[in-house]
Protein backbone atom coordinates (compact mmCIF):
# COMPACT_ATOMS: atom_id res chain seq x y z
CA UNK A 1 0.00 0.00 0.00
CA UNK A 2 1.08 3.52 -0.64
CA UNK A 3 1.08 6.22 1.98
CA UNK A 4 1.02 9.95 2.13
CA UNK A 5 1.94 11.84 -1.03
CA UNK A 6 2.05 8.70 -3.20
CA UNK A 7 -1.53 7.86 -2.24
CA UNK A 8 -2.76 11.38 -3.01
CA UNK A 9 -0.93 11.40 -6.36
CA UNK A 10 -2.34 7.98 -7.28
CA UNK A 11 -5.88 9.10 -6.43
CA UNK A 12 -5.43 12.27 -8.52
CA UNK A 13 -4.11 10.29 -11.53
CA UNK A 14 -6.98 7.80 -11.30
CA UNK A 15 -9.53 10.61 -11.09
CA UNK A 16 -8.07 12.27 -14.20
CA UNK A 17 -7.99 8.96 -16.06
CA UNK A 18 -11.60 8.16 -15.19
CA UNK A 19 -13.01 11.53 -16.23
CA UNK A 20 -15.14 11.55 -19.32
CA UNK A 21 -13.56 12.99 -22.43
CA UNK A 22 -14.45 16.57 -23.27
CA UNK A 23 -15.77 15.73 -26.74
CA UNK A 24 -16.22 12.90 -29.12
CA UNK A 25 -14.31 12.63 -32.37
CA UNK A 26 -17.55 11.54 -34.01
CA UNK A 27 -19.24 14.78 -32.93
CA UNK A 28 -16.36 16.84 -34.29
CA UNK A 29 -16.45 14.87 -37.54
CA UNK A 30 -20.19 15.46 -37.93
CA UNK A 31 -19.69 19.22 -37.57
CA UNK A 32 -17.01 19.24 -40.27
CA UNK A 33 -18.98 17.21 -42.82
CA UNK A 34 -21.20 19.60 -44.73
CA UNK A 35 -21.76 18.13 -48.24
CA UNK A 36 -23.85 15.01 -48.85
CA UNK A 37 -23.75 12.89 -52.01
CA UNK A 38 -27.35 12.73 -53.29
CA UNK A 39 -26.86 9.23 -54.74
CA UNK A 40 -25.26 7.23 -51.92
CA UNK A 41 -25.79 9.69 -49.01
CA UNK A 42 -22.11 9.72 -47.97
CA UNK A 43 -21.04 12.87 -46.12
CA UNK A 44 -18.09 14.87 -47.43
CA UNK A 45 -16.27 17.95 -46.15
CA UNK A 46 -16.34 20.15 -49.27
CA UNK A 47 -17.27 20.47 -52.95
CA UNK A 48 -13.86 19.31 -54.19
CA UNK A 49 -14.23 16.03 -52.33
CA UNK A 50 -17.71 15.64 -53.82
CA UNK A 51 -16.30 16.05 -57.34
CA UNK A 52 -13.54 13.52 -56.59
CA UNK A 53 -16.15 11.16 -55.10
CA UNK A 54 -18.25 11.37 -58.26
CA UNK A 55 -15.17 10.64 -60.38
CA UNK A 56 -14.35 7.46 -58.48
CA UNK A 57 -17.71 6.12 -57.27
CA UNK A 58 -20.20 7.42 -59.85
CA UNK A 59 -18.18 7.86 -63.09
CA UNK A 60 -21.23 7.81 -65.38
CA UNK A 61 -23.05 10.51 -63.40
CA UNK A 62 -22.44 14.24 -63.64
CA UNK A 63 -21.60 15.98 -60.31
CA UNK A 64 -24.22 18.47 -59.09
CA UNK A 65 -23.55 22.15 -59.45
CA UNK A 66 -22.11 23.91 -56.35
CA UNK A 67 -25.38 25.79 -55.77
CA UNK A 68 -27.26 22.58 -54.88
From TrEMBL:
GO CC, any one term: cytoplasm
Bias type Basic and acidic residues, positions: 1-19
Keywords, sorted A to Z: Cytoplasm, Nucleus
Keyword Ligase assigned: no
Where's the C2H2-type domain?
A: 37-58
Q: What Pfam families does its record include?
A: zf-met (PF12874)
Q: Where in the cell is it found?
A: Cytoplasm; Nucleus
Q: Does the keyword Cytoplasm apply?
A: yes
Where does the record place the region Disordered?
1-27
Question: InterPro entries attached here?
Answer: MBS1/2-like, ZNF706/At2g23090_sf, Znf_C2H2_type
Q: Which domain of life is it from?
A: Eukaryota
What name does this protein carry? C2H2-type domain-containing protein
Amino acid sequence: MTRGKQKIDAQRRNAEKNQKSKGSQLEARAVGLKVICPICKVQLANEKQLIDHYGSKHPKEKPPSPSE
